[in-house]
Amino acid sequence: MLTGRQRGVTLIELLIGVTIISCLLLVGMPSFTGWIRDLQVRGAAESIQSGLLLARSEAIRRNRPVQLTLADAGGLVEWRIGCVPADAACPALIAERKRGEGGLNTRMAASAVAAAAAVANVAVVATDAGAGAALAAGAGLPVSIAFNGLGRLAGPAPDRIEVSHATPGARRLVVRIDAGLARVCRPPQDCA
């Protein structure tokens, strides 16, 4: 037998609480998915940047040419680092990032090769027409970027590597190679 009043939540109060939580989730979900897309693009761009920096540091450490190859012609983020030419002291595969490691939602593309400026080790600046225009996923791929034993570009290199999301209209980032160093920027304002 119960001697006092029972405390709890009525069915009406429970339904009101569930309705409020559902409304908050519906309002917040688009910004949450946009945030996740931005994180995926940022992670892929930083992966390419770190691959370029690793290839450069391996070339300096080994005092011989080392290249990073952006391998997937379809635009999935995948790269390999290896010596050029490979031998027993310097393998053809030093490090790699497989296409499934960071998810399959990000895409990359490389712009046209800027041969003269890259060989001269000059900072390459995108043209006005190309700075804001998005590249199609897989454009310019596969491509290899080689560094010599001094850490300088050892041949032609793309003037930009663009990373975007598979979802249309999502933010994109650009990896620029200036004087052998890689940096990530947001086009078009930060990439000048």
Automatic annotation (TrEMBL):
Q: Which Gene3D superfamilies match?
A: minor pseudopilin epsh domain
Please verify whether the record's keywords include Membrane: yes
Cellular location of this protein?
Cell inner membrane
State the superkingdom.
Bacteria
User: Which key words tag this protein in UniProt?
Assistant: Cell inner membrane, Cell membrane, Membrane, Methylation, Transmembrane, Transmembrane helix
UniProt-listed InterPro entries: N_methyl_site, Pilin-like, T2SS_GspH
Membrane topology (UniProt): Single-pass membrane protein
Q: Name one Pfam family in it.
A: GspH
User: What are the transmembrane regions?
Assistant: 12-32
Q: Which residues form the General secretion pathway GspH domain?
A: 44-178
Q: Which family does it belong to?
A: Belongs to the GSP H family.
Protein name in the entry: Type II secretion system protein H
Q: What is the lineage of its organism?
A: Bacteria, Pseudomonadati, Pseudomonadota, Betaproteobacteria, Burkholderiales
